[in-house]
Amino acid sequence: xxTAPAGGGPYEFTEAQNRQIxxxxxxxxxVSYVLFFLGILPLVFLVQILWAVQRGGSGGLVGMDLFIRxxxxxxxxxxxxxxxxxxxxxxxxxxxxxxATRGSDMQHLMAALDRLRxxxxxxxxxxxxxxxxxxxxxxxxxxxxxxxxxxxx
Length: 153
What we know:
Layout: H1 15-54, H2 63-100, H3 105-145
Helix pairs in contact: 1-2, 2-3
């Protein structure tokens, strides 16, 4: 394991450590690409649904019902996935800087760890938001299913 030179100079990771950090950054980057792709899919479906609604095919959903479905099933998840992808990508970039530079490994490591901490904080907020979206959808669906139906005329 590499150590700081006597006199408190900059810490430099060994080649093996740099390889491990580089692998972590590459894996994080790959995950960010998957998150971006998964975030774009609901937007594609949302555009298709809005196009169908404009042509008169809303599948029986109108007004607030349609808005809540679009928000909870498409727009909300897309935003959560795209934001997660951006955060993971930023953390991957911070870890890449450790390997790419010389003489400032510890500064870049601390910045990368700060990004990682922020990433997990935001992911926790996103999970809570996703649970809220699911709760809204579940309550809305329950209310819709339990509304009395008017007698046939």
